Amino acid sequence: MKRSQKTEAHGTLKTFPAIAELELGDLIEIFRFGYQHWVIYVGDGYVVHLAPPSEIPGAGFASLMSTLTNKALVKKERLLDVVGRHRYRVNNKHDRKFPPLPAGKIVRAAEQLVGQEMLYRVTSENCEHFVTELRYGVARSDQVRDVLVGVSVAGLGLAALGLLGVAVQRRRRQNQ
Predict the structure, then answer these.
(1) Which of 49, 86, 94, 129 is the catalytic position?
(2) Residue 127 annotated to the active site
(3) How many Cβ atoms sit within 10 Å of the Cβ of residue 58?
(4) 49 given a catalytic annotation
(5) What percent of the chain has pLDDT over 90?
(6) What is the Cα–Cα distance from 89 to 79, expressed in whole angstroms?
(7) Which of 16, 28, 96, 117 is the most buried (most CB within 10 A)?
(8) In the chain, count of helices (H) and strands (E)?
């Protein structure tokens, strides 16, 4: 029986979906310290993902090495090795907006990329972009968008405070 939107019961952080519950082409979000790593399920307990060429499975923080080298390697590894001790969930969050490609096509495309070195950019070509392009044909990264929005809001807030400070100082000078 096919699950409809897999951000419901399995979307809670408390649940670690069993391998048997995963479906081909599922996006899996792994919660590492300070960021989320994304992989795509290709069957038999394996996932395909972007990782630094030297990353040890499940190393977590080592994934940030891709940001320094601008390169990543497409790897096929056991899900539980990649996850390590981190929490994870199935998160096919864009299924309502973008219809997923057929599972067989997703898996074939992912496995054809295994072993290839890819350009890696945090803002435009990261692990989330990689897996969403495989599943939907559209590269998206909400964590990048969320960070950029947060930085923009913080910047606007600081600018507003600065303008308010200037206005207060002018007012004080005029009253003196």
Answers:
(1) 49
(2) yes
(3) 17
(4) yes
(5) 48
(6) 11
(7) 28
(8) 5, 6
